[in-house]
Specification:
Elements: H1 16-29, H2 31-46, H3 49-58, H4 60-72, H5 74-92, H6 95-114, H7 123-129, H8 133-157
């Protein structure tokens, strides 16, 4: 038995007393959430976000036309394609790998920002730092990354599936 489409919505009119009773009941049952929501609304108002959202809603069709026109232009269209490509890239990276890389980059940035300036750093200094286990670990990771990237590039060039 097929369902019939809804062609109209009948609104029931409640009296002022009934509306007030429902509001009081909702406030009693959800007071903590209501207070949080009011705080959020106030923060949005103070930062100018609420008027912006209201204007966007009020001018919805015009705003949508402008956004669609931007996305249809070549420069923004390419940007959107690149963004989607980046999202696809991130979905292929195992979570554990991403967490360790982010932690490693964070640790490297911290160490680099705290490192004292070195006046002279030559080839022998670079070779000496290769003996540091932390440096060797980072170089090993980088070389493994480059090897995997090279393998994937070769597979793509040969028309195969890339991992």
């Amino acid at each position: 038995m097929a369902a019939n489409p809804t062609t109209s919505v009948e609104r029931t009119q409640m009296s002022h007393t009934e509306v007030r009773a429902q509001i009081d009941k909702a406030f009693d049952e959800n007071s903590e959430g209501i207070v949080e929501a009011l705080g959020l609304l106030q923060a949005l108002q103070e930062r100018g976000v609420l008027p912006l959202v209201r204007a966007l809603v009020e001018q919805g069709d015009d705003v949508l036309k402008v956004i669609l026109a931007l996305f249809q232009s070549e420069e923004y269209g390419a940007g959107v394609k690149n963004f989607i490509g980046l999202l696809q890239l991130f979905t292929k990276i195992p979570t554990e790998s991403m967490e360790s890389v982010i932690a490693g980059v964070g640790g490297g940035m911290k160490a680099a920002s705290e490192a004292p300036e070195v006046g002279k750093f030559g080839v022998y200094d670079a070779l000496k730092s290769l003996q540091d286990p932390d440096v060797a670990r980072a170089i090993s990771f980088g070389l493994a990354f480059l090897k995997g990237m090279g393998r994937s590039l070769a597979e793509v060039k040969q028309g195969g599936e890339h991992a």
